[in-house]
Amino acid sequence: MLRVLPLLALALACSGLGLPDAHDHEGEGAHGHGEAAEDPRPDNAVTLYQGGVELFMEYPTLVVGQESPLIAHFTDTRDPKGFVWVTEGSVVATLRFEDGTQESFAADKLLRNGIFKPIVKPARAGRASFSLALTGHPAAGTVEVGEVTVYPTIEAAVAAAPAEEPGEPTVGYLKESQWKTTYATAAAEAGTVRAGVRATGELRAVGGAEAELSAPVAGRLLLREPLYVGRAVEKGQLLAEIVPIVDADRSGLDATLAEAAAELGLAERALERARALHPAVVSERELREAEAALTSARARAEAAEARVAVVRGAQTGGGAGASGAAFALRAPFAGVIVSTDAVTGRSVAAGDAVARIVDPREVWLYARVSETDAARAGSPVGATFSLSGSDEVIDIAARNGRLVSVGAALDPATRTLPVIFALDNPDGALKPGMFVRSTIFTGESSEGVVIPATAVVDDGGRPTVFVMEGGEAFYKRVVRLGARDGDRVQVLSGVAAGERVVSSGAYEVHLSTVSGAIPEHGHAH
Question: Global pTM?
């Protein structure tokens, strides 16, 4: 798209911004660069994205026999997360006239990083297709500017210039500033987004995959190997022993053993019932809880039996150091130690924690949906989440996410509905205890204009985006947002499909407007 930008208007737009990188290309031509301020020819600006390259070019209208410096800014746009300037190469500008003849004008090297300055001096008038061919590494390609007119005289060029019309106010942000920051743009597109509800929550260890090893009796702690946070352990691995203080009453121990055996029997029958009624009556979460209850009951029964054996051995004269006179603490499953303060020789009371173990290969995303959205979250079909302090959006499908359960009632304290998903975590990157922000998808979808979520900045509580008018000019627009789907967000008003928005570095563009010198515009489409 070719635009005619008046020199005076653009100079005024760039003034007062307090930008440290204002164009200062002495003698370069367009945009008030040196001698161009006295050139009566209209100034042209063009911004094009083709073949992984952005061309932003300013130049005076082409006239036979007159030099027209092309201030051609070339940007490598192949990385959608961050554009960079072109650092080497050459450029050839070509005019191809309707009768098949052509004229070419070259710039064999960069004026400086990102900027080439070929001088076009046409020898004939008429309509011509205009292109710039960039040769270099790593960015290269030909950008087709489109049809242009070469006028026979300066007077003819001035007479043909369109009348100035007031337009939407813009924010100036020069290429030199863009190139010094993480900056990129993306096209707003018509697309489909999944509808969902927002939720907060945390990552938790899977039910039955978290255990706390505690002292079953009062005694002295003996470590066979060092215990420390982050250490991996195997199922059944001996971690520590408790040498008991022999003051136990055998009748009390027998009662404890009988109670543990009864609890184990109840847990076994409860699990059999849960398996028989799953999934018609019993949910996946309730089944997991029954399995975890059986594991705990079995551990308590084994602990009671071992305690009786330990005390019996000590009371029959085995002594603290004799075989069978110490209670062994073993890992109930393979996992990682997440907390411990165990020290050899430390005295412990019955029930004191020795170590906590978690199996991190799978975690639960435990989301809390607000009461106002609870009715819509009854049958979730998926979810995304981001960790606290991070903008990266993770789709649970990427980690084989699956629904575990939806709460049957609201939490009376928080007035939220719990929704639980299980996630594979083979790399251990997801840590139980991490807080998350999530979107739970309800199975509905909607059509509309979609932009990257990173394009939206908060301007005093109003969602705002910066829409590109040209390579160094942007419209500041307050938008109305719809559903967010992963790293995309729906725009209900403020941006039209086909417009380009600043997708990386929008906050830096926003900072250039903080002084209030730039008028805002709440344009709606």
Answer: 0.65
